[in-house]
Amino acid sequence: MRRFSWFNATSLTLGFAFLYLPMVILVIYSFNESRLVTVWAGFSTKWYGELFQNKDFLNAAWVTLKVAFFSSCLATVLGTMAAYVLVRGGRFRGRTLFSGMIYAPLVMPEVITGLSLLLLFIGIGLDRGILTVVLAHTTFAMCYVSVVVSSRLVSFDQSLEEAALDLGCSPFEAFRLVTLPIIAPSVISGWLLAFTLSLDDLVIASFTTGPGATTLPIKVYSAVRLGVSPEINALSTILIALVTVGVITASLISKRAAVAQARDERAALQQ
Amino acid sequence: MAQTIFAPWDDPEEKPLIEFVNVTKRFGDFTAIDNLSQQIYAREFFALLGPSGCGKTTMMRMLAGFETPTEGKILLGGQDIGAIPPNKRSVNMMFQSYALFPHLSIWENIAFGLKREGKDKEFIQARVDEMLRLTRLEAFARRKPHQISGGQRQRVALARSLAKAPKLLLLDEPLGALDKKLREETQFELMDIQESTGTTFVIVTHDQEEAMTVASRVAVMDHGKIIQVATPQNIYEAPNSVYVADFIGDVNLIKGQAKARDIVEGDDTSGGLELHWGEGHAPLVAANGDTALAGKEVVLALRPEKMSISKEHPAAANALKGKVIDIGYLGNISTYHVELDNGTMVKAQIANTRRVSRRQITWEDEVWLSFSATAAIVLEG
Lengths: 271, 381
What we know:
- The complex is a heterodimer.
- Chain A contains 11 helices and no strands.
- Chain A is an all-alpha fold.
- Chain B folds into 2 domains: 8-246, Rossmann fold; 252-380, CATH 2.40.50.140.
- In chain B, strand 4 (71-76) and strand 5 form a beta hairpin.
């Protein structure tokens, strides 16, 4: 019953236009010959060349990647641990308080998170730089990780852990050898989420950053204030391409795994 | 060749492998196990049977070490195991959901416990191969759990829990997920494996047929207490209470007043009790009734298959007149629902030795139900 309907077609077009038109325009203008962003003057890739000559941008990109990598790793470890305790720890004193508090940063305005972290770093006399940005990003990313991981743990058959204990594992071995490998996909997607969040954070980074630790979003934002340059369009296009490739790869991998599993299960049932 | 009957529970010299000593387990206000004492012997196949919530799973989880008793202690080979964590006990468990590790192959699943023990490679290889042979899984060693069928998964779970050669194997509803045919086959497999490995098995089940088939002794539980422990035959033929009689199999329960009968020399159907159960009805005879119950309100428990049905008045110790209300045809047997003239419904099960088309008794027929003087059991009301 797939019939063409004007209503459906219009909704689809409008929806996608709303989502993607700005990005499409950005990508098109990144190939603009002219220095003026709003005037089309023919196709060119010269801004990409200039981008790779720009030391400032390259440095900022490198800082951003470092911050994203370390903060997402740290957030994954802490977030997974928190999720494990919340789901598996049973009823301990303050469990409700703890589970409420771990999710609070999800709804906390970034300005407040950033400001409070800034005050903390000043208070304990920590010099602002890459370390403080990493710590700040870890703080807000770990609650996202713990949400992702705990949703997987809730559906995790606890008898698997009991079986591991029963077969001679210590509780930590049971986690390492059984729980972790099984929840690995959600831990990895938690890590990816944390990485992405860190990559595009502007507000918290600008509160906690210091000399020599300018991240790419801060760099772009300050550059745009002086006027949009086609270089930034080029940079954004590269980022969009990277994200697109990443998302498509991730979904292909998980789809193939699901298809293979379904096929195996069918084969098993037919025996 | 005379075979000695396996009955260590009757031997006062025999030391139990497991001993529950006044064990109580509470979860908050709920008492799951209520001051329970029980002994289980080596090489036994011990079944814990009861409705859900009766505490059978809690008993098993205490043996495995996932729960600790609130009061009392559990001894394994004479040693109090209350404080020993599950990974330090020589007890293994086969889980209801099988709990196979989905990320490991069948081979690795079975080897898992052996690797944790730090056994050397050749030993592990040999032991896993032995387990695969025992459970007929050689062809599937390299597969993952989701690539095999339910029955095969069940065997992997069994092989994995047996691999460490535990003193005690716990089976939590092991056959619950299998269909009827496969379940029956697997019951006999389980018994074979239990015999050939000499391991003590404790099985938890709510399926009475399963418990009767596999177990050397069955414990019927209710509300955290063991009501009766006996061999399957004794549980069925000589239940100690109305609860057990009613829980195991089908039973007709007739209430009445017990009176002692005279003993006649040379007549083994004399003595015992008779049951006065209604005005104008001849008393029912139970020659093996316990005379200690004389004068009390009692319940006569009568298995449906111990009754005969006929159109003429039979020459039996006990006869009941009634009308056929319903006939349940099960192929090999038929169950007749007969209403007695005081309104009591009684079930009689008769083997279908003749073709149904030649059956003489049908709906609405006036019939006589009869049973021998020793067929019924008299229980305290």
